[in-house]
Write a structure and sequence with these properties.
Elements: H1 2-22, E1 50-59, E2 68-69, E3 73-80, E4 82-87, E5 92-96, E6 100-102, E7 109-113, E8 119-128, E9 135-136
Antiparallel strand pairs: 1-8, 2-9, 3-6, 3-8, 4-5, 4-7
Amino acid sequence: MQKIIKLSVILFLTFLCIANVSYCAEKEVLLKTTATWDNAEYKKLKIKNPEVTVLKIVIGVGEELPMHKHDLVNVAYVKKGTLTVVTDKNEEITLHEGESLPELVGKYHYGKNTGNEPVELIVFYLGEKGTPLSVNK
């Protein structure tokens, strides 16, 4: 009887191992940074009431967003299209599908669609609860 129990446990554990091997989640680091795209380092974040917001933003062909700034940390992922971001000092960066951008904090800039299809962005914001996601100039 003890042999049957031991054999059953071994078979059960073997089944679990095989089942776990068949599970293959893939992961890829899209962005890991301590600074924005213009190399401004993030300072120690002191957030008493943290709030996370995730937006999907679609920018039409040839469309430009207004000049604005963010007073919180945010990262944009380009799901589709080509996006060029331009600062009020005429610094710029262009991103393509599958790329991520650690956005500027406290610096005015705007994004524009410089491709031939709509730009789809997924943007993740982290800041103090109630802080506006962007402030237009």
